[in-house]
Design goal:
64% of the residues lie in helices and 0% in strands. By secondary structure, it is mainly alpha-helical. It has 2 domains: 243 residues, Rhopdopsin 7-helix transmembrane proteins (Up-down Bundle), CATH 1.20.1070; 122 residues, Orthogonal Bundle (Arc Repressor Mutant, subunit A), CATH 1.10.10. The longest helix has 32 residues. It is elongated and about 80 Å long. It starts with a helix and ends with a helix.
Amino acid sequence: MALNAFLSSPLTIQPFSLFIGACMCFSFGLSFFLWRAGPGSAGAKNTMALVSLLISMLALAVIMQAEIPALRGQVYYLVSIQMLTGPLLYFYVLFQTRPNFTLQATHLWHLSPLLIFTLIWHWQMPVELNHSLALPCFSNELCDVYRQNRYLHKVAAWVSNLAYGFIIIGILKSYQVQIKRRFSNIEEINLRWVTMICWCYILGTLLAILFEAGYFLGNEFNSGHMHELAMLVTTVLIAHYGVRQVTIHAEENEEPQNQPIESVSSSNKKYQTSSLTEVDAASLWQQLQQLMVTEQPYLEAGLKVSDLAKRLDVSVSHVSETINGYAGLSFYDFINKQRIEAAIRILEDPNKAHLSATEVGFEAGFNSVSTFYSHFKNYQGCTPKQYRSNKNAATVSLKS
C-alpha cells in the first residue's frame, strides 16, 4: 500500500538526498574497488570493502527515510546494519595489526547485536506509542511514534560506537608501541587514519546524545545527522588513506637464521623473561654503536630492526631490548635521533649549503618531510631552516 502510494505520487528529490545519494554511489564504487584491487591482505581489504558497502547501504536508508516517509518503518530494518560498523572496523584493525589473524566461529558473537535488534524491531512493528519498548511522550508537539520506539536501538548504537571506538583506539595505541620497536619509518603503517575514524564516531556519538537530550528541551535537530556526518568523514578517510594502506606485518617477525648469542655467565639477567644478559647487552650495545659509526645504517630510509639484527647476527628482540635499555628509546626514536644528528652535520657543512632543508632530510634517511620537521623540532626546538639561519648568523658574528 505504502509503496503503491509512493509510485503514484509525483517524484521530488530533496537536495540533501541528492548529496547523500552521491556519497552512496561513491562509497559503493569504493567498496567494489577495495574488494577487487584494494591494498593489503585479503582479509583487511575485504573487511574495508564491507565497511564502504555498509556506509552506502546506510546512505540509501537515509534517502529512503527522507523521500519515502510511508516506508519509514521498513527502512529501519536496513538501519539496523549500523550495528556492524564497530565490529567491521575492529576486524579490519585485527587483520592489519596481528599476523596470521583469521576470523573464527567465536567471532560471530560480534554480529549478534545486528540480529537481536533486527528481531526486536520486527517485534515492535507495526509501531505504537503504547508499545512496551516505546518511550513515553513528554509533549504532544514532540511526539513521534517512530522516534519514541527507536530509543532502545539508538542507545544500543551509541554504546556500540563508544565501546568499539575505545577498544580499537586501545589496540592501536599498543600497536604504535610495537611498530616503533620494529620500524624506523611508520608513516605508512601507523593506521592513524583509523584512529581518526574512531574519534569521529566517538565525537559524533557524544554529540548525538547531547542533541537527543536537547530534543526534550524543544530542539528539533535530528541526532541521526551526527551519524550521517560520521559516515561522510569515514568515506573521505577511507578514500584518502584506506586505498593506499600497505600490508603492515609482512616484515614484523623477521629473525636472523642464527640463534641469538648466549653468555657463558648467565647470572644477573637484565629481564627475567629474556635470554639477554647484562653482559651480552653491553657487548651488543658496543657493536651497535660501532655499526652506527662505520656503516651509518640510519641513512637507509626503510631501515628495520630486523636489518640491524641480521648484520649483528642476533635476534630482533635482543636488539630492541638493548636499544631500550641503554638508549632509553624505542628503535624508531633511536634511529631518527641518529638521523637528526646526521641532518645537523649536513646543515653545518658549508659544502652542502646548497641543499634545501627537504633535501637534507632525505639525505639523512627520512622519507617524509613532515616527519623530518617534527623530529627536528622535537630535538632542537626549531625548524631545520631556522637552525641553519641561526648557525649562519652566529658564524658571521664570530668573523666580524
